[in-house]
Amino acid sequence: GKDTEAEVTIGTAGATAEQEDVHVTATGLYGSAIGSGIKDTKVTIQGHSTIRMESKRKNSTAIGSNYGNVEVNIKDNVTIDAKDEGTSIRYEGGGSGIGGGDIRGDSNRKVVVNIDGGTNGKVKIGDYIEIVGEYGAISGTEVNIGDNVLLKMKPWGSPDDKYINVNGAEAAVGTRNNPAAGGLVNTIGDNTELWYYKRGVQHKIVHGKNVCTKNEINRQEPTCTEEGWVKYGCTYESDRHATAPEHIDEWTETIPALGHDWKDNGDANHICDRDHVTAAHTYGEWTTVKEATCTAAGQKQHTCTECGHVETEVIPATGHHWVDKGDGTHTCPDCGATEGQPFNTNSALELRVVDAEGMDQPFTVSQNGTLRTYTGAYDTATLTGDLDTLRYLQDHGAQTIQFVTNGQTSSFDINDLLAQGSGSEVFYLTHRGAE
């Protein structure tokens, strides 16, 4: 409409091609194809919508309004193109492709253009035929271009043509040293491409999230222990209609060190496949694979956390822990075994062999000259008795006491021990097996 306020909504917000497929052909003459020629207007094109514009060139804006306050929202999966091949979305006499036409005459006028494909959409404007406007392909006081947008524009024909016109000046895209030199496109999103044609050649507008064509200049590969790097350079596509933001032409990116790739070397070390250095295994905690019993050894393992090498060790049999039953036998409470007690153990005038709890253990005794030997049945055992018993044994020819268990032998001179005590004091000589 030319003289009426307008609010136009085309499509359903967020709709996909499976949910809707809206097609609209729009023609504008002395007004707007979609919007209002004079009054305030709001246009929302969304969902999965395709708009085909017919070219009408007098005092028209394709989408928006030449006058009044304007808000144009184009989002989701919208496609806007010319109706026929060979034509452009062209609007003259103060018009523009999208937005508000000539906005120089009214400082209070607000024209906002928002174009955003969002996270999952893709807005395509001019992919088939470029949009053109005498006062800018897009013209407004605020222009926001978000994510997933493809926008193609074409010059009107004058050296002063504007592609994106913000506040009456060619818009810079990105960061400018002097914002007063022209308008600014407020935001540029990810996966967004802005293109323009000049003398039949297509150019990409440089912006902060599409800054350059990235070229590798040199690199240093990382090692197991040292970082690497890649040096890049930029090739910019820009002229006066595509002001480049501030940028660095060359930069270096770090490649993290690889870390060693350890493999089991079959011995106490592991070896790195990459640089062939060796290092000792780094083991985790021991895990019991098989419990030891009174009579059978067990097994434990731990694994290298770097290469997976497994080390195995034997857990010694615990041995019986005999308890005297008072009937000439003794019983092991751990496994239930019962045996007759050895003939020559723990007599009144003899030393004793006991376990850690003081329970009697079997042993044998022999004497060769002045050497009297006590042999225990288990790795861990204690030879004990009082000094009176040692005097008795000395009176019967013994001068040296020897204590033997599996893998360990110790001895002492009776006189030396008697010199350290008196009366019926008790002594202890303990052997400890592997733990």
UniProtKB/TrEMBL annotation:
Protein name: Uncharacterized protein
Organism: Faecalibacterium prausnitzii
Upper taxonomic lineage: Bacteria, Bacillati, Bacillota, Clostridia, Eubacteriales
